[in-house]
Amino acid sequence: MAVVIRLSRAGTKKKPFYHIVAADKIKSRDGKYLERLGCFNPRRKGHKDHLVVDRDQIQAWVTKGAVMSETVGQLLENNSK
After folding, report:
1. What value, to the nearest 5°, has the Cα angle with vertex 44 and ends 20 and 76?
2. N or C, which end of the chain is more exposed by having fewer CB within 10 Å?
């Protein structure tokens, strides 16, 4: 089973909210996931809760062989500055 760390969309029309999840690569974007690792709210830019992530859990999944999506990687990189 290939695991990927990616965004899962939630929220309503024109008010997106995303969960950062570890999911099987073949599952659909908003389908069943293995574990929720954080959340991302693009509408709250500049606020403290814009991106909430459990970095220890993400690192644990990466050491187990999970691959981060390009978008999640960019979010984490930009937030660590």
Report:
1. 40
2. C
Q: Distance between CA 65 and CA 50 in Å, rounded?
A: 27
Counting every residue written for the chain, the total comes to: 81
| Mean pLDDT confidence for 54-79 | 92
Q: CA 4, CA 62: separation in Å to the nearest integer?
A: 9
Amino acid symbol at 6? R
**pLDDT digits over 45-56, tens only?**
777 778 999 999
In CATH, what is the architecture of 3-79? 2-Layer Sandwich (3.30)
**pLDDT-based confidence at 81, cuts 50/70/90?**
low
